[in-house]
Amino acid sequence: MKSHRIALLFNANKIFDREVISGVAAHLSSTRASWDLFLEEDFRLRLPGIEHWQGDGIIADFDDPAVAAALSRSRIPVVAVGGSYADESNYPESIPYVATDNFKLIKLAHDHLIEAGLRNFAMFSLPEAQENRWAQERETAFRTLLRKDMMEPHIYRGLGTSAPSWDEAVEQQIKWLHSLPKPVGIIAVTDARARQLLQACIMAGIEVPEQVALIGIDNDPLARMLTRIPLSSVMQGAQEMGRTAAHLLDQMLHGVRLGGTRILVPPVGINVLTSTRHEAPKHPHVMRARHFIRQYACQGIKTHQVAEYVGISRSSLESYFRQELDCSVHDVILRFKLDAATEILARGERSIADVALSCGFTSVQYMHAVFKRELGCTPRAYQDRAMQGRAGEADGDGAAVADLRSVA
To answer: Which residues form the HTH araC/xylS-type domain (predicted)?
Structure first.
């Protein structure tokens, strides 16, 4: 069997690119195709000299205009991957193109915020630039959806990420957040952008998700780990894009002419976490207390520390919680610790003891008792069931799911 030399031109520091590459790998493992893959050692995309590369095919990220320009006249088969466009002229000519459906990404996020009970909406985007065309397409989708409902879209692009401008960028984000009508649902064009805004909310003392419900796009585990409040996110379906792109290139390598074929891949669903679980508490003390608990529950905080943060007596805070939530402050702290533990256990990456420690339980035995009382099973049994469920999804036919709800 002939082996083909294939270049993957992506920047794998981005979760989207990594997921596309994972999809290519999944295609290769499920077929008899024999590919020798070329990627830079540090998984960075470098174009200089690519025109002299002696290979058989290329799969590349065409969201980067420099890549699109460099490969537009390639003599070897190329499959492009990138974002969808409302204007057909923005697609490359005569090159197969696999796109994430930007409109459906934003619509799914917008519908989720509506279901959460929000009536005001905004978007946190990126500065206008050729390399951010995909972000501007998501802005267009957002405008279309809001104007259809006769609403004025609030879109803020802010500054690009750089060390010298970081303080100014955060100050401007906080100023924009304060200017928005509350409560508000905000769609960020990426999880990285959502993480920045979540930090700005925490610095400004803006309660998430009571005043600001925030959702990102990418379902990036690294962004999730770097936020104190678990971040809801739209899952793009980038792995399916990689599988599709690899399948198209495989056909081209065997003589099939695909020309300007375009395939739009819809989002997989939403990983719903704390940042969009919007509720409208009746009392501001309860809202402020829950905001503090979300950030620090897993650090072993006690009821008196929550009361000190809110600025009222412990007995008064307990009274407000009983009136509004029909439970104690301790119950809410424990619930957040349990939610954090179930999320980590479901990923199957850490030991039970490590999960107990990181989620603020005083011992493995105490976490075991809480799981038995609240969920009717042990942490180990919970983890085993979650892992079996994930294995079942992996063995399925790859159909999109509408939502991925937190178990707890």
So the answer is: 287-385
Can you list the domains of the chain with their CATH numbers?
4-100+237-267 (3.40.50.2300), 103-235+272-276 (3.40.50.2300), 284-389 (1.10.10.60)
User: Which pLDDT does position 32 carry in this prediction?
Assistant: 84
The string of pLDDT tens digits covering residues 367-396 is 999 999 999 999 999 998 888 876 665 554
150: Cβ contacts below 8 Å, ≥ 6 apart: none
pTM (two decimals): 0.79
User: What is the C-alpha to C-alpha distance for residues 215 and 201, in angstroms, rounded to an integer?
Assistant: 13
- Which distant-in-sequence residues (6+ apart) come within 8 Å of 157 by Cβ? 125, 126, 127, 128
Rounded CA-CA distance 252/250 in Å is 5
List own/partner pairs for 299-307 with CB under 8 A and 24 or more apart: 299/360, 300/360, 300/362, 301/333, 301/360, 303/328, 303/329, 303/330, 303/333, 306/333
